[in-house]
Design brief:
GO terms for molecular function: GTPase activator activity; small GTPase binding. This protein is mainly α. It is 73% helix and 0% strand. The chain is built from 19 helices and no strands. The longest helix is centred in the last third of the chain and has 43 residues. The relative contact order is 0.07.
């Protein structure tokens, strides 16, 4: 607050700006101090403020409060976990240099960023051996480390994996990713049928562009200032924001995409889409909340997908059984012929 008020200059414009900033600081300071009260009684206003973006200096504490990661027992195990060795270490080391290669904090093999990123990823691979280490998750941890110390980042990441469907997304089978793609395709078909037909005619599968949206929460799509705004909302509202932003991007770009072939669309997704909202992340959030999203329908699709997968599994078991039977019959015929 003090540094904010000392920035007030004689020009009225900058004076207004610093007052605005000061008000924001006071407000978020109050929210952090009276967290339970806000969570219980002012939920609507809190949601609105988070959608407008959490101020940079408050992100560390607010993210921890949002996912209830402030007093986790696993924090006390962290230093012990670092002394152990993990079977995933080689994999983690290999991928770390590819995580935010342009960011100052992570530049260079001996950088502090790479070291703490390795520590958190290794510690998690020991806590959750079924998932171990999964490519893509380092971008989420990297973002957390830009905001807070490694023990706190570790606790938030554990919480995100447990409570935000991320663990299911990163499991070796990646079954949850299949479900997200299935749900997203339904929304696309329902809300942008012409674009959906065009994608199909070009064999441009949803997983080709949307997998990274779900696995890295747009951290490998948008520049950090925009991606962090999406992440703020994800921390409060979960994966719903990924569906909303994804569909909003397709709506905004439908006309251009309809004129491109598969190769052209791939290039467009890599070069044009990431930078459309660099100067106005608010516009992206606004567009995302104009997208129709029906939680009941999503639940129904989840059941539908589970039934479909279970049927596939049964069919595979049946095929296996028939093959075994077939092999045994062949052996019997050969024996009889002999």
């Amino acid at each position: 607050r003090n540094s904010g008020s000392s920035l007030v200059s004689s020009s009225s414009a900058s004076s207004n700006l610093s007052h605005l900033e000061e008000d924001t600081w006071i407000l978020w300071g109050r929210i952090a101090n009276e967290w339970e009260e806000w969570r219980r009684r002012k939920e609507k206003l809190l949601k609105e403020l988070i959608r407008k973006g959490i101020p940079h200096h408050f992100r560390a504490i607010v993210w921890q409060l949002l996912c209830s990661a402030t007093d986790m027992p696993v924090k006390n195990q962290y230093s012990e976990l670092l002394k152990m060795s993990s079977p995933c270490e080689k994999l983690i080391r290999r991928d770390i240099a590819r995580t935010y290669p342009e960011h100052e904090f992570f530049k260079g093999q001996d950088s502090l960023g790479q070291e703490v990123l390795f520590n958190v990823m290794k510690a998690y691979s020991l806590v959750d051996r079924e998932v171990g280490y999964c490519q893509g998750s380092a971008f989420i941890v990297g973002l957390l480390l830009m905001q807070m110390p490694e023990e706190e980042a570790f606790c938030v990441f554990v919480r995100l994996m447990q409570e935000y469907r991320l663990r299911e997304l990163f499991k070796p089978s990646m079954a949850e990713l299949g479900l997200c793609i299935y749900q997203f395709e339904y929304m696309l078909q329902e809300q942008l049928p012409d674009l959906n037909t065009h994608f199909r005619s070009q064999s441009f599968h949803t997983s080709m562009y949307a997998s990274s949206w779900f696995l890295t929460l747009f951290l490998t799509t948008f520049p950090l200032p925009v991606a962090t705004r999406v992440f703020d909302i994800f921390m409060y509202e979960g994966l719903e924001i990924v569906f909303r932003v994804g569909l909003a991007l397709l709506q905004v770009n439908q006309t251009e995409l309809m004129q491109l072939d598969m190769e052209g669309m791939s290039q467009y997704f890599q070069r044009v889409i990431p930078h459309q909202f660099d100067s106005c992340p608010d516009k992206l959030v606004l567009k995302a909340y104009q997208v129709k999203y029906n939680p009941k329908k999503m639940k129904r699709l989840e059941k539908e997908y589970a039934a479909m997968k279970s049927k596939e599994m049964e069919e595979q078991i049946e095929i296996k059984r028939l093959r075994t039977e077939n092999r045994l019959l062949k052996q019997r015929i050969e024996t009889l012929e002999k």
